[in-house]
Amino acid sequence: MFTGIVEELGTVAGIEQQGDAVRLRIEAARVLADAAPGDSIAVNGCCLTVAARDQDTWTADVMQETLDRTSLAGAGRGDRVNLERAVTPSTRLGGHIVQGHVDGVGTVLRREPSEHWELVTVALPAGLARYLVEKGSITVDGVSLTVVSVSEDSFTVSLIPETLARTTLGTRAVGDPVNLEVDVLAKHVEKLLAGGGREEER
What we know:
Layout: E1 8-17, E2 21-27, E3 40-43, E4 46-49, E5 52-53, E6 57-63, H1 64-69, E7 80-85, E8 104-113, E9 118-123, E10 137-140, E11 143-150, E12 154-159, H2 161-166, E13 177-182, H3 184-193
Antiparallel strand pairs: 1-2, 1-7, 2-6, 3-4, 3-7, 5-6, 8-9, 8-13, 9-12, 10-11, 10-13, 11-12
């Protein structure tokens, strides 16, 4: 589990194609301070497992399911990526509950800068709009954000200078893909209201 507060920008240092999988090697510093094989690190909001590490890089195996459902399929050597270690019992929950399980890939539609912040509109994949509400939470490329407005096929978020400077969202251009994870609590509520969580009577 994560909080959607990006710890650092890493760099894709290597990509090894393995047919139905990819082995990513990512250069980092802060997230490697206590990382060990088996630990979880979110990469652009996608939970990956540390397979190996050295002083400056760590490696993760990305299976076909992940490549099919996230923007990591288009990752290239030299790309910057948002990194966050999994939470611990003493972690401050500065964002919201994030699983690192990407629900779909959106596309940046518009960027509207102002003097102190920037309004960004992102296209929503079909079926995700029902989980978004104004002032609710969404994760974009691993960044916990507050929804400003939502329509049937898009939503907007307002990015402060700190987010623009410390995450990949500062450089995402119109047309770029972004990983989206909706609030898991909304999905659980939907299932319960539909009766999907009711035990059968005996």
